[in-house]
Fold this sequence. Notes:
Blueprint: E1 2-6, E2 16-19, E3 29-39, H1 41-48, E4 59-60, E5 65-72, E6 84-87, E7 102-106, E8 111-112, H2 119-139, E9 147-151, H3 156-167, E10 171-176, H4 181-187, E11 191-194, H5 199-205, E12 211-216, H6 223-229, E13 230-238, H7 251-255, E14 260-263, H8 271-286, E15 295-299, H9 303-311, E16 318-322
Parallel strand pairs: 9-10, 9-12, 10-11, 12-13, 13-14, 15-16
Antiparallel strand pairs: 1-2, 1-4, 3-5, 3-7, 3-16, 5-6, 6-8
Amino acid sequence: MKAAYIKETGSSKNIIIGDLPEPEIGADDVLVKVSAVSVNHVDTFVRAGSYQTNLNFPFVIGRDAVGEVEKVGANVDRFAIGSQVWTNSMGYDGRQGTTSRYVAVPADRLFHIPSGVDPIKLVASVHSSATAAILINHVFQAKSGDTILVEGAAGHVGTKLIQLAHTMGLRVITTSNEADFDKMDRFGSDLALDYKKSLTKQLEKHDIDGVDFVVDTSGKVALQENINALNERGTIGLITAPEDNKFTFNVRKFYTTDKAIRGFVLSHATIDQFIDAAKLLNQRMVDGFLLDDDIVEKPIEDAAQAQHALETNTVKERLVLKF
Length: 323
């Protein structure tokens, strides 16, 4: 079968397009005929070896895919041959990736594509959408009426955070370029702030004493500024880091107000968290949410080029590789 794989970690030049044996499935697995995969920054970290995880070589790259069920294991009863499905947690922790014509997926990591939902839009969305869903529901344990501040809100994760938080009844405050304010409003932001101006002064102007949760999707906002924006017992969710990988903040003021900083990456999510997120994502997608990404479609043969484009920040759109 055709696959994009590596024989060792390293640069995007290590990616090989070639033939590999079709995978065998176990009793709890499903063989999926892949139609498309998305390309994520974490895929480049795994390939480069900068994200340490168990890899079996030759290693097929990629973690998200959509496709059709080709075969089911003896213990699998949730899927039938021909079912349209998606997955978003392959390609790390000992599991082969998805950028191959066929992939053996554990049944508990596989989900149905809802009727009427475009598979290409879905696969482009699920990484950032699942990140947002698990962050809100499991890391923050947010509830209706809470206030969340989303910084860098016009990006892929930011727009998903807005939509999910809005539909869950949270008050959503966003920072972005002023040119994106209409977009923020359309996605469900209750208050759009200019990222170029002082966050503290803008919050004061709108009589906002504090927020319950902060997510900086850009890694460019000073940690102390975000701590200052929190209510007592508020939480910052860290999903990225500043370029110099350093933060400074007033430790005494931080702990004496019971504030918290929680790091989160999707690679450490549990099966139950993935399942909960998938249910929520499928529901919201049926309702027309989370499918708004600008997408560039490329053939599987461009896998190396696609990863290089992400690493060099030469593309803003979501990249989807198709068979």
